[in-house]
């Protein structure tokens, strides 16, 4: 007795369901996909974090080994007639985790707050400053 086409349709449906589930799972757990070791993550509040994007999906971006820029302004004003050497202050690179509240060195950033992410070249000033920090210079 010949088999009916019902089992063939069931097999095709099962394969399609498995492929859809696999695609959805992969889109939720996708690895960063960036070409360089370091990225700059620009947020909607104006903050920029430098680090390694380890994972991203439609909901969040996972960043590790994080640094950010901090502006240090002089506490004392110059005397009248003197010009400040750097009125905007000095930029310094700060390693996340050294703050008073002691955060861990990873962030789960809501995708709604990410404007864009850029790869950083190995010879960029930020990457060189991170390398200097890591080697203790």
Topology of this protein?
Layout: H1 6-28, E1 38-43, E2 48-56, E3 60-72, E4 90-95, E5 106-110, E6 114-120, H2 125-135
Textual characterization of the structure:
25% of the residues lie in helices and 34% in strands. The protein has helices at 6-28, 125-135, and strands at 38-43, 48-56, 60-72, 90-95, 106-110, 114-120. Strands 1, 2, 3, 4, 5 and 6 form a six-stranded antiparallel β-sheet that branches. It has two helices and six strands; from the N terminus they run αββββββα. The termini are far apart. With 137 residues, the chain is of the alpha+beta class. The longest helix is centred in the N-terminal third of the chain and has 23 residues, at 6-28. The chain folds into two domains: 1-30; 31-135, SH3 type barrels.
Radius of gyration: 24 Å
Question: What share of residues are in beta strands?
Answer: 25-35%
Mean pLDDT: 82
Poorly predicted runs? none
Count of separate structural domains:
2
CATH architecture of the largest domain: Roll
Give the H and E element order.
Answer: HEEEEEEH
Number of E strands? 6
Class derived from helix and strand content: alpha+beta
Largest sheet: 6 strands, antiparallel
Please tell me what the overall shape is: elongated
C-alpha termini separation: 81 Å
Report the CATH C-level class of the largest domain.
Mainly Beta
């Amino acid at each position: 007795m010949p088999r009916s086409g019902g089992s063939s349709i069931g097999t095709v449906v099962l394969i399609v369901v498995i492929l859809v589930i696999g695609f959805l799972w992969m889109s939720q757990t996708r690895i960063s996909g960036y070409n360089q070791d370091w990225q700059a993550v620009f947020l909607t509040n104006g903050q920029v974090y430098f680090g390694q994007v380890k994972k991203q999906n439609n909901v969040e971006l996972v960043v590790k080994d994080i640094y950010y820029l901090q502006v240090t302004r002089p506490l004392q004003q110059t005397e009248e007639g003197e010009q400040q050497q750097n009125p905007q202050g000095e930029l310094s690179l700060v390693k996340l985790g050294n703050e008073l509240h002691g955060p861990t060195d990873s962030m789960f950033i809501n995708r709604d707050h990410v404007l864009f992410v850029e790869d950083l070249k190995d010879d960029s000033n930020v990457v060189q400053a991170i390398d200097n920090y890591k080697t203790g210079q």
